[in-house]
Design a protein that fits this description.
InterPro entries: DUF2779. The chain folds into 3 domains: 1-243 and 293-338, no CATH class; 253-284 and 469-707, 2-Layer Sandwich (Nucleotidyltransferase, domain 5), CATH 3.30.420; 387-464, no CATH class. It contains 22 helices and 15 strands. The protein has helices spanning 10-18, 21-28, 30-41, 68-73, 80-94, 107-132, 149-162, 208-223, 253-264, 269-277, 293-296, 313-323, 326-337, 401-410, 441-455, 471-479, 547-557, 571-584, 589-597, 631-638, 652-663, 669-708; strands at 45-47, 140-143, 165-175, 180-189, 194-200, 227-236, 297-300, 359-361, 367-369, 382-384, 486-494, 510-519, 533-538, 565-568, 599-601. Strands 2-3-4-5-6-7 form a 6-stranded mixed sheet.
């Protein structure tokens, strides 16, 4: 007889199945989490708690890692309002009926999920109305979203007996004294206890965790005696551009924008000079903002992945169950979750070298038990404590976490300081008997600089911060900055799952703010603002498309001192934003295209070039980069006196979420004008000034090197 020793929440189940039961155990309840916090504080265990980036050093303007452990440990450093908001979200997350979901701790994710859930319900209401027009026995839809679980479960039973309901939203089911329980976003009712489950996800593609989500729901309903005919994900159709005839099915929005710019050809300044000097005004779009539900929502019955011939979710579940016993999986997981931390002792299974109770598909699409990281399946979710801030293997960029864990677990130390070379016998080899670092340019560069710092701690000139072996690349990049004016520019963007304005698709990066610092000659000094020119813009209107005034002001400010060199940090982001603006507002395409075509990337001093060009990574590398080329690491390392610490808003994701709250009416206009606007402007302005700092410091390093050689 099927019987569980401990409750198994849906979120805990998903974490265990996709990642590791050790991580699932930590997030299963507050008591376990509190124990894990203590082990981390006491330097006993290191627990992976951030967002699921394969390479956490991969720079992205919009992909801020959510390390909830760090946030929780540093809660006392927040001001009272931030602390109150954090604790409110924190406690609410633990009160969730399905278990704590770290991904949902991000405010924007919750907002998007709720908004999309509402649209999915509207969509099925519409389908029911259309179906009722064609049938004699009219059906109803019922939303149980406002009910607590017990009430919803009782109401679900009543509705299933009445036989007049087509769809139930948030239908509730439980089994084994509520040790397993679930709510279905959309449950389609059929005859004789046959049902279909539709799970709403504010995403553009089906993911592995969605499959396990549906697996859990099917399992609970079957235990309750129901027959699940089909399962699917109601997702967002990324091809849908609101109030536009643009069709982006064949190519992505970004690809079409690239093609649009390419078709314009090389833009000469003479073509746009008269226009950019004119007092033009960008007109607002007066078309009503109306979401077409049948275009926005897509029902996806196929499993996760990119294979065009991938099976349906239902067939995937069937294949999984042919190989594994779900009853036994639930019992095993329940047994793990039943283990308590007695007197602060760490449960024995937390020390397992490999991940426990996770399931994955191999490259052929066959189900297997355990991770498949090129045969290195050492667990990185829970490890013996080590200091991630200490230079070592964990900091190596573009090096998968499973490989980092393998090296750390099987070598004498996780830290560079304990080695004379990356090729010591005490560092584990790969499964071919070769060093992991023989062809790893980034690792070798990092170790070289760190080792020199260790030898000459007080003489920075000997650290090889400049890559002497590739000085011609550095000179080539610096030559770009010999022409003036130089426009250093940076954007802030916000995004919504449900398109918020016309001519956007889901999660469109909507620019609402920019900062430009203009260098007009060699005499610039970031400590003396009067030696440069500064321009900025921040949309201050609620419920209006910020792109209109953004385009107007950005074009004018970008040519105030004539055509020049345009500089971004991680230019692919800013160029992508500008391409889409050009395509959706073609009247302004040529001046935007000119800026795109003449933009260079300040990050080139740190990151490697695209394949085929040969430029190596970290032409400039400081030990304090710790393997990252994010501007939040590079700039403070080159000049520690210049920081973001004095700012109220000091991260891109915080700026994005703040503007979104303002547009959605959750920050009143009066509060915005009085308190928030100034902080937003200071943050974006600091980003472009940080770029000036980087350029100045790189030039000084090279000049010092040339002076000695």
């Amino acid at each position: 007889m099927f019987k569980l020793n401990a409750k198994v929440n849906k979120e805990t189940f998903k974490l265990a199945m996709k990642e590791c039961v050790k991580k699932a155990w930590v997030w299963d309840n507050k008591e376990n989490f509190t124990s894990a916090v203590k082990w981390k504080k006491d330097r006993i265990l290191e627990i992976d708690a951030d967002a699921n980036f394969e390479d956490e050093n991969e720079f992205s303007e919009s992909a801020e890692s959510i390390d909830i452990f760090s946030a929780y440990l540093n809660i006392d450093s927040l001001d009272e309002n931030e602390k109150e908001e954090f604790l409110k979200r924190w406690n609410s997350a633990w009160d969730s009926e399905t278990g704590f979901d770290p991904e949902l701790f991000a405010g924007e994710t919750i907002e998007d999920g709720n908004a999309f859930g509402d649209k999915v319900r509207e969509y099925f209401d519409m389908k029911n109305i259309i179906a009722n027009d064609k049938r004699t026995n009219k059906k109803i839809t019922v939303n149980l979203d406002e009910m607590k679980f017990f009430e919803a479960e009782q109401k679900t039973k009543e509705l299933l007996k009445e036989d007049n309901c087509e769809y139930i939203y948030e239908a509730a089911f439980s089994y084994d004294n509520e040790k397993i329980r679930t709510r279905c976003d959309v449950l389609k009712i059929k005859e004789n206890k046959h049902v279909e489950i539709i799970e709403a996800k504010a995403t553009t593609k089906v993911k592995a965790e969605h499959f396990f989500d549906l697996m859990y729901q099917v399992f609970v309903l079957e235990k309750c005696g129901f027959i699940v005919d089909d399962i699917c994900i109601a997702k967002i159709n990324s091809d849908y551009v609101m109030n536009s005839d643009l069709i982006i099915t064949a190519k992505t929005f970004g690809d079409q924008a690239k093609e649009f710019i390419n078709q314009l050809g090389k833009i000469k300044y003479e073509e746009i000079e008269e226009f950019v000097k004119s007092d033009f005004e960008v007109e607002y779009d007066t078309d009503p903002i109306e979401v077409e539900l049948d275009k926005l929502i897509a029902l996806d019955y196929l499993t996760y992945g990119s294979n065009a011939k991938r099976p349906t979710l239902k067939d995937e579940l069937k294949m999984f169950r042919e190989k594994f016993d779900l009853d036994q999986i639930f019992v095993t997981l329940s047994n793990y979750l039943n283990i308590k931390s007695e007197n602060g002792e760490i449960p024995e299974f937390m020390h397992n070298k490999k991940c426990t109770l996770n399931y994955n598909k191999d490259r052929a699409g066959n189900w297997d038990h355990g991770f498949n990281h090129d045969e290195y399946d050492n667990c990185y979710h829970v490890m013996n404590w080590f200091d991630k801030n200490e230079p070592g293997f964990w900091n190596i960029g573009k090096f998968k976490r499973a490989l980092k864990s393998h090296v750390i677990r099987n070598s004498k130390s996780p830290y560079f300081k304990d080695y004379e070379s990356l090729f010591e016998p005490s560092i584990v080899l790969n499964n071919k008997g070769e060093s992991f670092f023989e062809k790893n340019r980034i690792a070798k560069r990092m170790f070289e600089v760190y080792d020199l710092k260790k030898q000459y701690p007080d003489d920075e000139s000997k650290w090889r911060i400049i890559d002497f072996d590739n000085i011609e690349w550095i000179d080539s990049l610096l030559n770009i900055y010999k022409d003036f004016p130089i426009y250093m520019y940076d954007f802030e963007t916000s995004k919504w799952a449900i398109p918020r304005f016309n001519l956007v698709n889901t999660y469109y990066q909507t620019p609402f703010q920019y900062s430009i610092d203009v260098i007009v000659d060699e005499n610039y000094d970031y400590n003396k603002p009067e030696t440069m020119h500064h321009y900025s813009f921040l949309s201050n209107e609620q419920d209006t498309d910020p792109r209109i005034k953004f385009i107007e002001n950005f074009i004018k400010d970008s040519f105030k001192h004539g055509p020049g060199v345009y500089v971004a940090y991680n230019k692919s982001f800013e160029q992508g934003v500008l391409r889409k603006l050009a395509m959706m507002f073609p009247k302004y395409a040529k001046p935007l295209a000119y800026i795109i075509q003449n933009t260079v990337d300040l990050m080139d001093f740190f990151t490697s070039a695209t394949k085929g060009t040969g430029r190596p990574a970290f032409l400039i590398y400081h030990p304090n980069f710790k393997g990252s080329y994010s501007i939040k690491k590079t700039q403070p390392s080159l000049d520690p006196s210049f920081s973001y610490n004095d700012l109220v808003i000091n991260k891109g994701d915080k700026a994005s979420e703040t503007f979104r709250k303002f547009v959605d009416g959750r920050i009143p206009k009066a509060a915005w004008d009085l308190k928030v606007k100034e902080g937003m402007l200071k943050y974006c302005d600091r980003d472009t000034l940080a770029m000036v700092v980087i350029l100045k410091k790189v030039k000084e390093l090279v000049e010092a090197y040339n002076g000695k050689n």
